[in-house]
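so my prof wants the structure for this chain in the tokens format not the other one, which i didnt know existed until like an hour ago. anyway here's the sequence
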Amino acid sequence: MPHSDETSRHRRFAEAAREERPDLALLCLLVGMEADPGLDEDGLDRAQIELDRLAGLVPFSPGGPEGWAAALARVLGGEHGFRGSGADYRRLESSLLHEVLEHRRGLPILLSVVWIEVARRAGAPVYGVGLPGHFVVGFGDPHGHHVLVDPFDGGRTLSSEDAATLVAGATGTPLAPSMLSPSTPLDIVLRILNNIRAWAAARPERTDVRLWAVELSLLLPSHPARLRYERAQLLVERGEFTAGAKELESYAEVVAAVEPEAAEAVRRQARAARAMLN
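here's what i got, hopefully its the right format
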């Protein structure tokens, strides 16, 4: 049974995710509240104020996409040192916006969130681009003249060949035009939560982190149905056998119509979970 404060946080996250125009920064900060018990309302306000402050340092209307890219690179990558390194992939804090704002280090997608939110506040035509394995930022018209930059590398401008190299390095496949499509705020938040799940999955002692990352993902309007199965497995793994069995049975009902054999296998798992109580 979730605590009342946890229920309140989840309700707030769900409400924010269902806004007509979801606030990317707020959603990322609400993710941070799950990870960091010390992050309170004042902390949320300080993070938003810092984004506003950084936006105020960007020159007014510096030009076209190239001008915006150069201005943000100078302010964020140069003067304030936002960038990443290999070590950032090993730290949960690299996926938390308030930590990235404080320490100027993070994963490509969190650094991109900083760029997007600062640039948006400054009036730039900005959007996120979820390349496989490496998130970047675009300025300009995604279907016309635009510039791609890599916040993880301090805002280095990416040529088409650079983007293709990033994709090939991550997937071994060529760059497809669809990979350059803008990511919505909810796309970005789900990808951040996927990163957190992957971080926790590599650390068996952190099922607590993996569980809340799954639960927040399930609160997004669109999410993979299989996350319900993952949540059920985690509940069982954590000794919450009754709750896990119920979740397994619910998931079995969802998949029964299209995968009856898989549904029966899940029901067997539910029976095994209930047997752990005897």
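also thought this was worth mentioning. The mean pLDDT is 93.
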